[in-house]
Structures are given as C-alpha cells and as structure tokens.
C-alpha cells in the first residue's frame, strides 16, 4: 500500500523535523564547531580582561592635574582641564574596562 509510513529500514527516513540522519549529523557537527568557536572567543576575551586588570589597577594612585593633563594631551577634552584644575588639586583614574 502506497499510503503506509516509511519504515526504519528505508535509507531516506526523516525525523520529526524532516531531517535525514546525515542532516542531523551535519547539524550536530556545525553546532559543535560553533560551541568550540564561542569557547575560544570567550577565552580570548577573558585573557584580554586579565591583561587589562594586570596592567592597570582599578583605581590609580593620586595624580597631580599636570600629570593627568599630560596623559590626555591631544584629546578633544583636553581644554576642559583648565576648569577642572580650578576645583581639584589631584585626581585618580578608574580602569576603563566597563566596571566603573
């Protein structure tokens, strides 16, 4: 009878989503590759964060405004230091890693 469902012995048997065993295996392999890539990217991001943490403390030592101004020379906000210098004698920097 032509209306009977395919049996498990037929090579083109599909699962509930209409995928063949070969397609399922290809999807599994692609998923494993994506997971490995994501793990590599996550590790690289953690390595970068650790390098930043190592190279710059969360809060710097006190800096005179002259020292601080030198670090920002050429920046578009450089002219703002004149107004800051009238209010403060020293500053501290926070690590610019998004954790402030």
Q: What is the overall silhouette?
A: rod-shaped
Structural class: mainly alpha
Identify the strand order in the major beta sheet. Answer: 1-2
Main sheet: strands, sense, barrel: 2 strands, antiparallel
Number of helices: 3
As for the number of domains, it is 2
Span from first to last CA? 72 Å
Q: Could you report the average pLDDT, rounded to the nearest whole number?
A: 82
Helix content: 40-55%
Total number of beta strands: 2
What does this structure look like?
- This protein has 100 residues and is mainly alpha-helical.
- The protein folds into 2 domains: 18-55; 57-100, no CATH class.
- Helices cover 47% and strands 4% of the residues.
- The chain contains 3 helices and 2 strands, in the order H-E-H-H-E.
- The protein has a two-stranded antiparallel sheet with strand order 1-2.
- The relative contact order is 0.10.
